[in-house]
Specification:
Helix content: under 10%
Number of helices: 1
Number of domains: 1
Strand order of the largest sheet: 1-2
Radius of gyration: 16 Å
Distance between the termini: 26 Å
Strand content: 25-35%
Structural class: mainly beta
Oligomer: single chain
Length: 70
């Protein structure tokens, strides 16, 4: 599991521009996802689907979560 995510602006930089610790892993379906993102905050209302309709990949409009059937 990822416990820390570092962002480097450019290849070769020795110090990350952003560092976030990840935690509070929970199982969603068959995978574990971390909701805690350190000082950047917390992800809530996490959803995982077994499959998605083709329109998710072809339609430019972003549907509301409640409109996606699991």
């Amino acid at each position: 599991l990822v416990i820390q995510w570092d962002f480097y602006m450019e290849n070769g930089h020795l110090t990350p521009m952003v560092t976030n610790t990840w935690g509070d892993y929970k199982k969603y379906g068959n995978i574990y996802l971390a909701g805690e993102r350190g000082t950047r905050g917390k992800l809530t209302d996490i959803h995982v689907w077994k499959s998605l309709p083709e329109s998710i990949f072809t339609n430019k409009e972003i549907p509301g979560i409640n409109k996606i059937k699991s």
